[in-house]
Specification:
The protein is an alpha/beta fold and 365 residues long. Helix 7 crosses helix 12. Helix content is 38%, strand content 16%. It is globular. The chain folds into two domains: 176 residues, Glycogen Phosphorylase B (Rossmann fold); 168 residues, Rossmann fold (3-Layer(aba) Sandwich). Strands 2-1-3-4-5-6-13 form a seven-stranded parallel β-sheet. Strands 9-8-7-10-11-12 form a six-stranded parallel β-sheet, with helices on both faces.
Length: 365
């Protein structure tokens, strides 16, 4: 089939804009695509069944597996699979962006295996946020090698939040001293993100000026209690276990010398890009695409560590963040600009629609 021009391309995205208050990734991508002349609509079953669309673009479909009640999860997944069959019949190409290769909580293991067995053969193309992610996806799901795959990186967040708050002002607001050495964990708190271990490792650092801020929301009451109990043992640890409004994020990021993301497993990290967008160096495990991010943005801004997180790793990371002389006070994120990524995504769509690409590669700009 002939691929439509960008001006006539109609895309149904799940989600497109509805998660703007939780993760602005989709909003930023699709707003940039709209500026290229593409029509973007928020997914609803009715639109898929009755609307005229070229592409149905799915993000995080595996989130259905995180529904607590097994029957509810099964019904939602059966509904999704039915809609995928209808999309195929109607000639709508299904594109999946690979944010994760598995669910983090793995609540329903048998259902998850069945999910991927049905889902993967019914997509027409996929997008990875990194070269590493693309390779790992093809290993995890060998059937992906038979369809078009593209690399379109995760964009930055510089245009998504209010202006950065200067460090001295931010610390004054949070009752921190100007000579404190501040580490920050920021983002949603889930078991795999390893926050209790971060606090335990931090408590072993012998530095009276060291501070650790743990900022983010958790829906796990047991995890919240564990974090609060760990933090209560060290007055240098301050926790804000709640949803942080967009207006407050620049304050917390402004206080920090180093953002630490101690995840047990990781493929990509929006939190790392959030930190870099506010010109804060990050410490991340050498897992998934974090080494690729380090190469992309620079060793002055991204430091990785191997093995379990230790207090030595934290102390060395904090010393690196504080004492490294960087060529610029601003991290270079031009390669992650949304207009560029929008054009790369449209290149991927065109190839999938014209069915002229059978091998995985990076989408050109």
């Amino acid at each position: 089939m002939d691929a439509p021009s960008d001006q006539s391309l109609r895309v149904l995205a799940w989600p497109a804009f509805e998660n703007r208050t939780g993760n602005p990734y989709n909003r930023l991508l699709y707003e940039a695509m709209e500026k290229e002349g593409t029509v973007i609509d928020e997914f609803t079953p009715e639109r898929l069944l009755t609307g005229e669309y070229d592409v149905w673009h799915l993000h995080w479909p595996e989130n259905l597996l995180s529904i607590c009640k097994l029957l509810d999860a099964m019904l939602r997944i059966v509904g999704l699979f039915g809609l995928m069959v209808v999309a195929r019949i109607r000639g709508i190409r299904i594109v999946w962006t690979v944010h994760n290769l598995d669910t983090h909580e793995q609540r329903h293991l048998l259902l998850e295996r069945l999910f991927w067995t049905f889902f993967i053969p019914r997509i027409d193309g996929f997008i990875s946020l990194s070269e590493v992610g693309l390779r790992q996806a093809e290993v995890r799901f060998p059937a992906l090698r038979n369809i078009s795959g593209f690399v379109v990186p995760h964009g930055h967040y510089r245009t998504a939040y209010p202006e950065a708050v200067l460090k001295d002002e931010a610390r004054e607001r949070l009752h921190l001293e100007t000579d404190d050495r501040v580490m920050l964990y920021v983002g949603r708190i889930r078991p795999y993100k390893n926050v209790p271990r971060l606090i335990r490792a931090f408590r072993l650092i012998e530095d009276e000026r060291a501070r650790l801020l743990v900022v983010g929301e958790s829906n796990d009451e047991v995890l919240q209690m564990t974090i609060a109990a760990e933090a209560a043992q060290d007055s240098r640890v301050q926790c804000e276990l709640r949803f942080i409004p967009d207006d407050d994020l620049p304050i917390y990021l402004g206080t920090s010398d180093l953002v630490v993301l101690p995840y047990r497993n990781i493929l990509h990290s929006g939190a790392a890009l959030l930190a870099l967008s506010f010109n804060r160096p990050v410490l991340v495990p050498d897992l998934g695409a974090m080494g690729e991010l380090q190469t992309q943005i620079g060793h002055d801004w991204v430091q990785t560590y191997a093995g379990p997180l230790t207090h030595e790793t934290l102390r060395e990371g904090l010393d690196w963040a504080v004492h490294t002389t960087r060529d610029s006070s601003t991290s270079d994120l031009d390669v992650l600009a949304w207009p560029t990524l929008a054009r790369q995504t449209l290149t991927a769509y065109r190839a999938i629609l014209s069915d002229d690409s059978q091998s995985s590669h990076t989408a050109g700009s």
